[in-house]
TrEMBL record:
The keyword Signal applies. It comes from Saccharopolyspora thermophila. One of its GO terms (cellular component) is extracellular exosome. Keywords: Signal. Residues 8-43, 59-94 form the EF-hand domain. SMART domains: EFh. Pfam families: EF-hand_7. Transmembrane segments: none annotated. PANTHER family: NUCLEOBINDIN, NUCLEOBINDIN 1. This is EF-hand domain-containing protein. InterPro entries: EF-hand-dom_pair, EF_Hand_1_Ca_BS, EF_hand_dom, Nucleobindin.
Length: 102
């Protein structure tokens, strides 16, 4: 069995948020969250990690609704950068994580 080296992959919340803010209005709306989820699912599929990540349209809609409820703290239908950072902090996501190199 080959040794696996772990490197640190830096997650920059501001860059991730800006890249997801398609219309560049400073907030994420339901359509941008849906597009983000679909991009992530496509990436998992491309890498072959999507066995458990295949979702129906209804499941995608439910997931987006759940994310909006979790992240949109003031209920205005938009996720600000501050709400986004608060959400990923509550979920215990850090700004860096080990990544295996193949």
């Amino acid at each position: 069995m080959a040794d696996e080296e772990a490197t640190t992959h830096e997650f920059d919340p501001r860059t991730f948020f800006a890249a997801s803010d398609v219309d560049a209005n400073g907030v994420l709306d339901r359509n941008e969250i849906t597009a983000l989820l679909l991009r992530l699912l496509n990436e998992l599929d491309r890498r072959g990690d999507a066995a458990d990540a295949v979702l129906t349209a209804s499941e995608i809609e439910q997931t987006v609704e759940h994310l909006m409820q979790q992240l949109d703290e003031d209920g205005d239908g938009h996720i600000t950068f501050s709400e986004f950072v608060d959400g990923i902090s509550r979920w215990g996501l850090s700004t860096s994580r080990p990544v295996r190199e193949d």
